Amino acid sequence: MPEEAPESLLALVDRVNDVSPLPGIVAQMMDVCNDPAAGAGNVAGVIGRDVALAARVVRTANSAYYAVGREITDIPGAVVRLGMSAIRNIVVGMNLAKLYRGPVDAETGFSRGELWKHSVAVSLLSDMIARRSKLPATRQLAGEAFLVGLLHDIGVVLEDEHARDIYAQTPWSVRAEDETLSKAERRLMGFDHQALGAAVLEKWQFPEVIRQAVGAHHRPASSAHNPLIQVVALAEILAADARLGYCDIPRAADAVLEGRLRSLNLSRYEAQKISQETCEKLPDALEIFAGSC
Ligand SMILES: [Fe+2]
Ligand SMILES: [Fe+2]
Question: What pLDDT does 165 receive?
C-alpha cells in the first residue's frame, strides 16, 4: 500500500478485513498456487477438505465449458483436466460471487449482479487477450489475467458494502457530471476503487502482479512494466463496447482502442473474435461461479 494512502482508505481496508475476511479455502488455494514446490496433489488436498467445493469442481470439469473426452469422477482427474490456475480461479470466483449478490439499489440503480456480469466478462476477455497476444511475457500470464478480470472492480462492491453512505452518491455523480467513476470516487472519498481493491488484496496476501493490475486498471499508460494492466484495460474497452454488464468507463474513442490493440500486438479482427467468443461463453462462465461452496 502506498505510504501516502489516506486515513479514510486505511480505515476502510481494516473494516473490510474485519467484516469480510478472505475465506480460508481461498487463502489455502492462493498459498498452494503461489508455492513453486506445490503440485496437483496439493491442490487436490485443499479441495478434498471441502465436500461441497469438491463436488462443484468435479461437476465443472464435466461442464460444457471444460469437458473434452471421458467423464471425470474424482478430484485428481478434475485437477488434471482443469489445471491448477483454473481451479484457483474457480475457487476465487465462487467465493467472490457471493459478495456480488443483492437487490438493485432503488435510489441509485446500482446493481451488484450487473457488476459481477461485467467482472466475469472482463475475466473471459482478459484470458483470451493474454492467450492470443503475440507477446510471450503476456501469454504466460493468461491464468493471472483471468483472476485480475474477476477481481479488478472488487473495490466497487466493497465500497457499496462498507461505505454505502458516501458511495450511494457516486453513480448519480457519474451520470450527472459526466466524470469517470474513479474521478467521482476520488472527489467523494479521497481514493478510488482501484486503490481500495489493491489495498484489500494486499491485506489478503494476493501476489503483487495481481494487486498492481487491480490498482492501475484504469491507468494503463502509467504502468507499462506489468502486461496484465494493458490486458485488463483492453478487456474493459471491449466489455463496454459489447455492453456486457455494468460499465465503469465511457465508450472508448477509436484511437484509444487502436493504441491498446497495438500495445498487445493484436488486430481489430482478433479483438472482434474475442468479443464474440466472450458473448457466447459468458452464460456458462456465470453458471460455473453461481454455485456456493
Ligand atoms: Fe474499474
Ligand atoms: Fe471494470
Answer: 78
